[in-house]
Amino acid sequence: MTVELTLLPAGTSADHPETLDAYQARGGYAAWRIALGRGDPQRVIDEVQRSGLRGRGGAGFPTARKWSFMPKDGHGPAFVCCNADESEPGTFKDRRLLEATPHQVLEGLLLACYAVRATCGYVFLRWEYPRAARAMQAAIDEATQIGLIGSDVLGTGYSVEVRLRKGAGTYISGEETGLLETTEGKRGWPRQKPPFPAARGLFGMPTTVNNVETLACVPVIVSEGGEAFAAIGLPGNTGPKLYCLSGCVRRPGLYEAPMTVTLRELILDDRFGGGVADGRPPKAVIPGGSSAPVLRAEEIDVPADFDHLQAAGSMLGSAGVMVLDDRTCMVRVAANACGFFDHESCGQCTPCREGVHWVRQILDRIESGRGRPGDADVAIDRLDAIAGQTICPFGEAVAWGVGSIIRKFREEFDEHIRLRGCPFPAWGFRSNGS
Amino acid sequence: MELSESSRQEIDRLIATCRTRREAIVQVLEIVQRGQGYVGDEAVSYVANRLGVGRADVEDVLSFYPVYHRRPVGRFVVKVCRSLPCAHMGAARVVDHLSERLGVAVGQTGGDGRFTLLEVECLGACDRAPAMMINDDVFGPLTPERIDAILASLKDG
Asked: CB distance from A177 to chain B under 8 Å?
């Protein structure tokens, strides 16, 4: 059977989670049987290495290399956590995978567990996705019933458990070590690194944390071979990729494309967004969730991959592509994004806790017409004082994400201060004009 | 505190899968809230006793995570997303409209105990902006008419 190299197979939808039978009918769990049959975890890592798969959660770290950090001679417990805490504004790809094809994510998690010789996989799912939680728990139960999970899986001597854990509404629990803390039943305060999770992770044991979409790619890599996956896209940016399109675009939604697709194509092409809503010109695009630096309209002829977006001064991040049209107030965008980070700062590091709140107050002040000359400089100065001074990358996310909006659209901030008010229309109900 | 038998059993099953007593706190509080609507002081004592941890350990978790309600909430908890894509598509108007229709201010529960209105960060429904959640269900894209139709379709019980 030829398995389609896609993350959004025809006939699957969020309204009806794919059953075990349906998944197996399209080749599901073939990879799991193949890997166990070969009896060599290293071969899973080698195949993923050949595929060029890079983490889909935000950082784009090579998955095989991450797995290779796990101890190879361990005899105690070791874990893989599936990071299903998707909470980055503009991002909804993992929700779709969890709700529509939970078995594909689960098979990826099992393969990851086997690759790193883990004894238990955890699916850490955000509170806001109860439907995904039900779908995933049902998938775990189904797979356990037919012996794909449990002790001595398929008579191979390999034993693995899978447990579902729910978050409780905090963005920071999606940070790798914040996730570990929340899973341990504590406040989701990120940990100092090193030690890295591969050395001391969940409950002090070797642990790998992988994003949902990353894991969903693994079954097809194992069953079809790493080369087939690597043939999609360009070296270093391989495989199918999910893009979350939102904002001022005619057809918001989840789209799959090779990473050779440009931001402009994602927004304008009829296969994807179908154009800016109401036929307006775009003003800016945030390509990878609120943490990703903004791009001006003249910068969007760039392939939406890890390397090109980084070279363009932004990042692919969570592939949450937010489209902003020419009527969008960028001060309001910055204030909203900063408001999110202010709400979500975990409070552990002073530069972040105090700095983000301070900048939010400045941005709210400018937007409401009470800005003072020099405010934009103070905001940038405070943001720069956060980057590099915090335990986790949240600090950089705010500093780079919010800071880029101020730097790239400085004229709007200055204009607000000069006019003592906002010259743009309020954000009211609007349709996407499709 | 009247925790249902099914909630107690769910808690027992969960604890059996935990490696430490502490590990269960976040998960057990979710079960308690799902059953009772909120986590009251008695529930805190119950969870602490059941898990063999201190009350302070439970409070530590409760005070960090925003989803737990420490007081009774409405039968329908309405959460309006205010993050960027939803904000841009009119989230503030959604809140205004809901507040007017329900007679409830943001953060409050109506006198008849039917609705609690909250603003929250990203619900992961940006393709349906502006979006809201009512209990476990997501709705969007919202218009005033759609909101009215959704409210009219809600059934108590």
From this structure: no
